[in-house]
Design goal:
The chain is an alpha+beta fold. About 15% of the residues lie in helices and about 20% in strands. The chain is flat and about 65 Å long. The N terminus is likely disordered.
Amino acid sequence: MSGVSTGSTGGGGSTGGRRDWPLWEVFVRSRRGLSHVHVGSLHAPDAEMALRNGRDLYTRRQEGVSLWVVPASAITASSPDEKDSFFDPAADKIYRHPTFYEVPEGVEHL
């Protein structure tokens, strides 16, 4: 699966059991934010433990108000290598980008 971060991990001790735990992607919504932002990854045996570990690992300074954990296996991502062909259809729709309109005088914020 391409495009999935495998940053921080929560396991890897000598027991080998943690290496078998699934990978979870962690998203946090900050106090000032409106959307959740991907902050990293961790290994956990289940969703509840992933939430607890994500809270402890990624919101130590109490900056989060909401936390999402998603199994990495449930994420389907586009490939960065195919970005030109994947996003190319949007380039031919110039009407979506109002760059050719004239802004009237006196309009400051458009």
